[in-house]
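Anyone up for a design puzzle?
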């Protein structure tokens, strides 16, 4: 399969509309349709169910979509890493969200510096959930990232486990209590005992308010616009007079991991991962 065929397929699979996919690709619909037909013929399986009103993926199509995304990401990343390798002084790039390292960044870098053949490390400060994209596109060699995240095409090792605390405005009715439950917070779409809705809630808060960094988020908390949950290490770094942090004993902890591309064969990246796991055994969060 050629990368162009995969790009065409992914566009149709994501749009589920040949006209929109063709517009996205900058081509007309008829050659796009022919290209998809050729791909189906080459593979010997139907990738889409087509009717006059809809386009849906078949089971083989859903499998190919997941694999095609990985393959295209890997191609792009390979080119980016090749460009970076041309640097006279190659560096490792470690993606980290500001204050999203559980206090482990400096110990990891210090331990890595003692490794034979250690390279200079550039810390790439990333936005909300941006680390995965940086890894897949070859912009970063490794990343410190809180679970959960999309592990497709990535490997990861847990580093630290820490409690989640509720961040409330100081004037909130619940602020007088030392301990709260997830049910007390009544977060939209979040059910007690289940955290599958919690990350969706946090993503929605970030997107709705276009939050770029933690100070912005805490300002919204202080103003009473939102209530959120934060790792304990973050709350110790950001005391604010208008915000109170309260324990949530019934809420599972959050795990910080170091992640890297599955296809990575870099001995320098492997050494960085060893350093990270050496200074931060699972279950210990500074």
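Challenge accepted. My sequence:
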């Amino acid at each position: 399969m050629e990368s162009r065929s995969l790009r065409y397929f992914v566009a149709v699979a994501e749009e589920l509309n040949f006209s929109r996919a063709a517009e996205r690709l900058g081509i007309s619909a008829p050659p796009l349709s022919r290209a998809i037909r050729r791909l189906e013929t080459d593979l010997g399986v139907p990738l889409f169910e087509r009717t006059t009103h809809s386009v849906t993926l078949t089971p083989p199509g859903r499998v190919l979509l997941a694999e095609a995304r990985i393959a295209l990401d890997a191609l792009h990343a390979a080119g980016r890493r090749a460009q970076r390798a041309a640097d006279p002084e190659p560096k490792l790039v470690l993606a980290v969200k500001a204050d999203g390292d559980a206090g482990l960044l400096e110990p990891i870098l210090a331990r890595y510096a003692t490794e034979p053949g250690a390279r200079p490390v550039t810390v790439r400060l990333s936005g909300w959930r941006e680390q995965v994209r940086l890894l897949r596109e070859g912009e970063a060699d490794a990343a410190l990232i809180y679970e959960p995240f999309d592990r497709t095409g990535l490997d990861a090792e847990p580093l630290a486990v820490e409690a989640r605390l509720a961040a409330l405005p100081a004037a909130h009715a619940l602020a007088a209590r030392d301990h709260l439950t997830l049910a007390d917070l009544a977060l939209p779409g979040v059910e007690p005992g289940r955290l599958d809705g919690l990350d969706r809630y946090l993503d929605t808060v970030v997107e709705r308010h276009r939050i770029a960094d933690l100070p912005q988020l805490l300002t919204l908390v202080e103003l009473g616009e939102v209530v959120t949950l934060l790792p304990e290490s973050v709350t110790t770094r950001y005391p604010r007079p208008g915000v109170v942090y309260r324990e949530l004993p019934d809420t599972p902890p959050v795990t910080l991991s170091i992640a890297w591309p599955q296809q990575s064969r870099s001995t320098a990246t492997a050494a960085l991962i060893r350093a990270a796991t050496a200074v931060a055994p699972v279950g210990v969060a500074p």
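A detail worth pointing out: The mean pLDDT is 88.
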